[in-house]
Amino acid sequence: CPYPPAHPSSRSLPGLTNLLPSFGFLFDIDGVLVRGRTPIPAARAAFGKLVNPQGQFLVPVVFVTNAGNCLRQKKAEQLSHLLGISQDQVMMSHSPLRMFKRYHKKCVLVSGQGPLLDIAQDLGFCQPITIDTLREKRPLLDAVDHDRRPNVLVSEISVVLFGEPVRWETSLQLIIDVLLTSGYPGNPYGQENYPHIPVLACNMDLMWVAEAQSPRFGHGTFMVCLENIYKKITGKDLKYEALMGKPSRLTYQYAEHLIRAQALQRSWEQPIQTLYAVGDNVMTDVYGANLYNRYLQESCPRARLQAAGLGDTELAPAAAARCRSVLVCTGVYDPHSEVALPSGDSVAENVFHGHRDFSFDPALVEPDHIVPDVDAAVDLVFQLENFAPR
Fold it and tell me: Per UniProt, which keywords does this protein have (predicted)?
């Protein structure tokens, strides 16, 4: 993979060695550490440089994935073949929902797959209800599959989209029902139900890479379907109360919160100034890191918090000075392809794969560094930071 020479860090000075970390890593998982269930060889070498002989991390590290179909402790267990890590170091796309406490006591309709009720309850939700439960209580609503045709009374409901479901037609139908009836899916549709009840969505990836040769549909594809069905029926845009998962600023702010918590736990007194986001996807990892870096340049901490949609949570304002994007060539990114351009551009074959609510800016998809793999990424950052741990 061709990659440009590293740009010298503004904080690195020749001849000086940093013994304590003033930086942290945000590692993507799929395409960076593993491909499907298969570890990427460079990951083991990289981890060997990140821990001491006692197995303790030498720098704060958070594993940031857009996956949302399992509990974070399960994801930590899945990574144990590479390195023993704590669930507190794992950030799923839905992890920031812990901070949305104003919804925790309300009824929420959850969509996705995996142990949805366990995930929702682990995040703090007291009254989650799944699509399957709603279908069982309202069987006449699910009419696409005629073999399954033949009452939950829901109020103050919110919709939480954890990830792509298995049966898309059922989830799309019932979510639309809930949105168009203000939480009473047995009632007739009402055009007056706008703005609709709150929708919180996690993981906007249009596609993702597993063992197959080509990328697979991600939750972002399901969201495109939901948004277009809603607009086709109502003529109005589906609105999101919050969007989580990369490239959302909210995700990076919560990841920074976890980084600072690790540094505090290890009594590393030097402030964490730089975050290095290592990923394989230009439209999620690079775009998100660069967007957060731009956000960090805002001068007012209170404005930062309000802009992230966390004004009434316990999450502290962002404190890092910068966020650097490091792109690896072991996943979605193809070094021989051009950077994605928005649809309608003169280069018709390249389209913008980001979410509808994120505008395209060429500067945001330009990585600070491109390296072959995660091992090279760790070497690069240690060099930029003149880092030599005790």
Answer: Signal
Q: How many CB atoms lie within 10 A of CB 36?
A: 11
Contacts of 195 (CB under 8 A, 6+ apart): 239
39: helix, coil or strand?
A: strand
Measured distance CA(186)–CA(165) in Å, rounded: 22
Q: Give every CB contact of residue 214 below 8 A, 6+ residues apart in sequence.
A: none
SS3 call for 179: helix
Name, in order, each residue with C-beta under 8 angstroms of 336's C-beta and a sequence gap of 6 or more.
Answer: none
Helix (H), strand (E) counts: the chain? 10, 15
Spatial separation of the C-alpha atoms in residues 365 and 293, rounded to whole Å: 12
Which neighbouring-strand residues pair with 323? 275
Tokens of 8: 């010298």
Beta bridge mates, 278: 27, 326
Record the pTM.
0.84
Rounded to 10°, the helix 287-296/249-265 angle is 70
8 A C-beta contact, residue 266 and residue 20: no
Number of Cβ within a 10 Å radius of residue 268: 17
CA dist., res. 11 & res. 276, Å (int): 14
Asked if 272 and 321 count as a contact pair (C-beta separation under 8 A), the reply is: no
pLDDT of residue 9 exceeding 50: no
What would the pLDDT profile of 327-386 be if each residue is shown by its tens digit? 999 987 877 765 554 444 433 345 778 899 998 899 999 999 999 999 999 999 999 999
Chain mean position to CA 172: 22
Alpha helices, DSSP H only, in the chain?
Answer: 41-50, 72-78, 116-123, 131-137, 168-180, 219-234, 249-265, 287-296, 301-307, 374-384
Question: Do the beta carbons of residue 48 and residue 41 sit within 8 Å?
Answer: no
Alpha-carbon torsion 362, 293, 285, 315, what sign?
A: negative
Which of helix, strand or coil describes residue 103? helix
Q: Which residue do the tokens 């890092």 mark?
A: 320
Greatest distance between any 2 Cα atoms in the chain = 76
pLDDT, tens digit (0-9, with 9 covering 90-100), for 15-25: 557 788 999 99
Q: Residue 34 in contact with residue 43, Cβ under 8 Å? A: yes
